[in-house]
């Protein structure tokens, strides 16, 4: 039978000593394991059987059999499959038989209750520690690493149960994600939202929320990748461009960040309502690229978009800081002048762009100088080489091309290398006889003041 003799007990030893010694032998065999035979010996009576955790099909057999040659004793044979093979012999008298049966029952109770050798052991708990019905949504959404105690929250259990039966239940997903974020599981929340959007579609709000989580955990490459998807589907949505600009800034890709920041400003139908952070972050990107003159102009733009901001302390401090570092050439902005105006009427001005005169509306609410396609062609602006973007206007979406005017001049006031946008369509969006809008990409380089009967423009005074 191969190493099954075990320890032979002398008749004079106390029966309970035999029990304790036998239990120690069982433990040793369960840990080391030598036998793979799971069948009880012929002629044995199976007293009890119990599963162990040694293998998926392990059970302990406690057998009582009479010795084949002499009927003067009994042998307790314990055999586990495959890890136990031990025998305990004792005299065949009534007391010993009673102790043998007791020993078998004790051993059986310590391990488990009834089995036969074909009964598999119950599977161990999964790492999610979640009830079986919830395992599928947890694994599908990549949430296996969340602690058991956190999964026990009623709100999470309810949402997971709903997602288990209806995997594309957006209401359940919308309830689950904030719960995960509140507990600090932003990575898991982002992954769950992205997976849900991939599998169920029509969930751009979830993707945008995921980008916010990715920014919080500083996974900037993934934030950029998801933002790219969103921008491809929603080119005029400023929120997607803004989050991508932030991710670019954090990875020191300042040129890409600046392009997105400027488009956020250009795409906005009402730049006055944009958060101050859009302008200050744009200025920071410009400063990182060494464009301190542009940085000062961007902050000045934010201040001039709303008259209540003209004396804003933060804005004035930033402008002063950038102007101290600037090395602007005279061509960046020069001159000063004053112009008449009629009260409560649109201000029209004769403006030269690359030496070609046109009629422009002076519009402090326009973030960039905008011109018609016909005038751009007259002025020799290479707009077809620029990016084509969709902008939101009072009349809806319209396509424009980005470009650069070499010089814009209004009487004694001039600026070089001024960003512009050119209408893609042939029809003017500004009204009959109007060639464009004189917006903040020009005006923000200067100090402007508007009175009831005149307005003035001049190069900003520098301290010291």
From TrEMBL:
Entry annotated with the keyword RNA-binding: no
CDD domains: retropepsin_like_bacteria
Region (Disordered) location: 1-22
Molecular function terms, GO-annotated: aspartic-type endopeptidase activity
Protein's UniProt name: Uncharacterized protein
Pfam families, sorted: gag-asp_proteas
TPR repeats: 238-271
Keywords (A to Z) from UniProt: TPR repeat
Annotated source species: Alcaligenes xylosoxydans xylosoxydans
Gene3D superfamilies, per database record: Acid Proteases, Tetratricopeptide repeat domain
Any one of the GO BP annotations: proteolysis
């Amino acid at each position: 039978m191969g190493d099954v003799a075990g320890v032979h007990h002398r008749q004079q030893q106390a029966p309970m000593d035999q029990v304790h010694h036998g239990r120690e032998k069982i433990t040793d065999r369960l840990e080391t394991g030598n036998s793979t035979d799971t069948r009880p010996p012929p002629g044995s009576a199976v007293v009890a059987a119990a599963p162990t955790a040694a293998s998926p099909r392990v059970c302990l057999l406690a057998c009582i059999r009479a010795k084949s040659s002499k009927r003067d004793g009994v042998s307790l044979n314990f055999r586990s499959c495959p890890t136990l093979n031990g025998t305990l012999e004792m005299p065949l008298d009534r007391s010993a038989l009673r102790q043998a049966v007791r020993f078998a029952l004790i051993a059986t109770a310590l391990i488990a209750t009834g089995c036969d050798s074909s009964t598999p052991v119950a599977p161990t708990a999964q790492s999610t520690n979640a009830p079986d019905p919830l395992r599928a949504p947890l694994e599908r959404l990549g949430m296996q690493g969340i602690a058991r105690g956190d999964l026990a929250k009623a709100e999470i259990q309810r949402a997971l149960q709903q997602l288990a039966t209806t995997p594309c239940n957006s209401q359940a997903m919308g309830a689950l994600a904030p719960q995960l974020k509140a507990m600090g599981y932003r990575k898991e929340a982002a992954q769950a939202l992205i997976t849900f959007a991939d599998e169920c579609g029509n969930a751009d709000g979830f993707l945008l929320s995921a980008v916010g989580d990715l920014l919080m955990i500083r996974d900037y490459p993934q934030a950029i990748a998801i933002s790219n998807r969103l921008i491809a589907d929603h080119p005029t949505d400023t929120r997607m461009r803004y989050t991508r600009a932030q991710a670019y800034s954090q990875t020191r890709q300042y040129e890409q960040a600046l392009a997105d920041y400027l488009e956020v400003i250009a795409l906005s139908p009402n730049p006055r309502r944009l958060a101050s952070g859009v302008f200050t972050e744009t200025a920071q990107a410009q400063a990182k690229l060494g464009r301190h003159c542009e940085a000062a102009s961007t902050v000045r733009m934010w201040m001039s978009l709303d008259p209540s901001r003209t004396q804003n302390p933060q804005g004035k401090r930033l402008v002063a800081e950038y102007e101290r570092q600037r090395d602007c050439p005279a061509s960046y902005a020069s001159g000063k002048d004053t112009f008449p105006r009629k009260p409560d009427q649109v201000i029209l001005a004769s403006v030269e762009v690359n030496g070609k005169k046109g009629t422009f509306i002076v519009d402090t609410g326009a973030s960039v100088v905008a011109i018609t396609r016909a005038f751009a062609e007259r002025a020799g602006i290479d707009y077809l080489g620029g990016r084509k973007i969709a902008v939101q206007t009072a009349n809806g979406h319209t396509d424009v091309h980005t470009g650069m005017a070499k010089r814009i001049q209004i009487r004694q006031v001039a600026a070089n290398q001024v960003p512009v946008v050119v209408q893609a369509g042939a029809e003017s969006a500004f009204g009959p006889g109007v060639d464009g809008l004189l917006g903040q990409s020009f005006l923000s380089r200067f100090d402007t003041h508007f009175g009831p009967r005149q307005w003035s423009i001049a190069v900003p005074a520098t301290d010291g």
